[in-house]
């Protein structure tokens, strides 16, 4: 497996730049990179990805179908390298081995497709107090997910957050979002979710 360190005045990682890069072990993006476009790492498999300090934007589909073992970088990388945060928004969760994902309340927004990576081990998501918004498709397609804990601080649970989460057994959280039996969320009933 290879190690690539990009240099120069690269400020954008374009779509399909690392399409199906299965033999790439470690990628270091230069500090000049400010944006990563849709599907830049689609279908890839990286052990580690160095996140540049100037990164300002990551498209929701940037890591579609990609496995990233861990992120490395400055304060944007949290949770022992498993969470990539831009501003106050969780953008991407790496491929973690643990069955429980805890999203800290220091994050205000969980972004669209945050859990887009291959995470077959996650069965439980705990979203801590302080998080206010969960954007569309944030956890869509998390097939192994069984239990979800929503915080009282949540003000906006957007459409399709849990689409294609076929194995959800129980939601826990405020009555404004969770049904009495805990099987669905109120504002937006997840499509194909929690029907087992």
Descriptors:
196 residues, 6-stranded mixed sheet, 4-stranded parallel sheet, single chain
Helix- and strand-based class? Answer: mainly beta
Q: Strands across the major sheet, in which order?
A: 8-9-10-12-14-16
| Rg, Å, rounded | 17 Å
Assembly state (oligomeric): single chain
Shape: elongated
Order of helices and strands: EEEEEEEEEEEEEEEEE
Describe the protein's topology.
Layout lengths: L1 E4 L6 E2 L10 E5 L6 E2 L8 E6 L6 E2 L8 E6 L4 E2 L4 E4 L2 E5 L6 E4 L5 E2 L13 E4 L5 E2 L12 E3 L6 E2 L12 E3 L24
Parallel strand pairs: 1-3, 2-4, 3-5, 4-6, 5-7, 10-12, 11-13, 12-14, 13-15, 14-16, 15-17
Antiparallel strand pairs: 8-9, 9-10
What do these coordinates show?
The protein is mainly β. 0% of the residues lie in helices and 30% in strands. It contains no helices and 17 strands. The strands form four sheets. A six-stranded mixed β-sheet has the order 8-9-10-12-14-16, with no helix packed on it. A four-stranded parallel β-sheet has the order 1-3-5-7, with no helix packed on it. It has a four-stranded parallel β-sheet with strand order 11-13-15-17, with no helix packed on it. Strand 8 (77-78) and strand 9 (83-86) form a beta hairpin. It is elongated, with a radius of gyration of 17 Å. It starts with a strand and ends in a 24-residue tail after the last strand.
